[in-house]
Amino acid sequence: MDANGPFDSDGDPADSGPADPPTVMVPERRQGVFAVIHADGRHCTLGLSRLRADGSFQHLPQERHVFNPGVPTAANPRGIAVRLADILTRYQRLAELNGAAVRAVATQAFRALPNHEQMLIRLRRVTRVALDLISDRDAARFVCLGALGGRKTDRPSLVVDVGEDAAAIILANGDEPLALFRAGLGLSRFREAPKSGTPEPDGIRIQSWRRQIQQTLATGQLETIRGVAGEAVLVRRRDVAPAATTHLAAVTVLDEVASYLEIRRVQSTESGLEEGILLDLSRTVPPQRAPPPSTQSPARTPRTRSDY
User: What is the DSSP letter of 307?
Assistant: First the structure.
């Protein structure tokens, strides 16, 4: 291996032709165990789940790591790629040790990384993780499946998923998306420190956020779906405390969007993109076949004195 390790000087995993697969002891896949790997523009997450007999899922604590601590520049593409490869390799091994069926996806924010297409191709060779860059349409379908799966309503629903760089606002009928809007209301926008440098009380911060959100909505991007949806559902992260800035910002976005679209009923859920992928994966992975019955005669057990 050269000085750059498995990656070339541009930050992409080095392409040195077909390589021998690593020798590892991989347990057999277990029935009803699933792993979902999700990479966006900054973070990578792993969710391990087991399907219960009643059809619900038991979730293990989620793994979440940062592979891109800031905005990518020409100076750090190799560091981003190396960190992501290390994380994916670890996640793949954890999934294998648990005997899980794996689905790995990258979403819209991943496209902002330098040389992301070549990075995807070469990461698959280095890590053995089939990271799939999904479209906005597929991402919206998974979000709705996770947030609204199995729900029967007489009117369309609105799903609000506030990400790091933008908020996805999805109009859905049941758990099928009808329209997707991306608004510049990402969480990173609300983490900006005040110009004075002095922390502001929550009340003042939220009022400032509301003005920013109202200015964004005033552009009329959502005008065509005003009055259409009967309820609005906020997708919130399971590991974020209610008092955290990210949660307060997401709730404020939901409140302003619902008010603008004349929606009176709002609620939140911890199920979103990754839970939707999990549901889809559990439906598409074929069940394992039972081993064929043995044709050999069972071994005879020697008799003891008590058998007579």
Answer: G
Count how many domains the chain has. Answer: 2
Helices (H) and strands (E) in the chain, counts: 7, 11
4 in a domain, yes or no?
Answer: no
Report yes or no: 170 and 140 within 8 Å, Cβ to Cβ. yes
Residue 55 belongs to a domain with what CATH number?
Answer: 3.30.420.40
Is residue 242 a contact partner of residue 115, using CB atoms and an 8 Å limit? no
Whole-angstrom Cα distance, residue 231 to residue 174? Answer: 12
Single pTM value for the model: 0.79
In a domain, 50, yes or no: yes
Full domain range(s) for residue 191: 150-271
Per-residue DSSP letters for 179-246? EEEEES--HHHHTPPPTTSSPPPHHHHHHHHHHHHHHHHTT-TTGGGTTT-SEEEEE--TTS-TTSHH
Amino acid at 90: R
- In sequence order, which residues have a C-beta less than 8 Å from that of residue 38 and are 6 or more positions away? 44, 45, 47, 104, 105, 106, 107, 273, 274, 277
Local structure of 38: helix, strand or coil? strand
pLDDT tens sequence across 36-83? 999 998 899 999 999 999 988 999 888 999 999 875 454 578 889 999
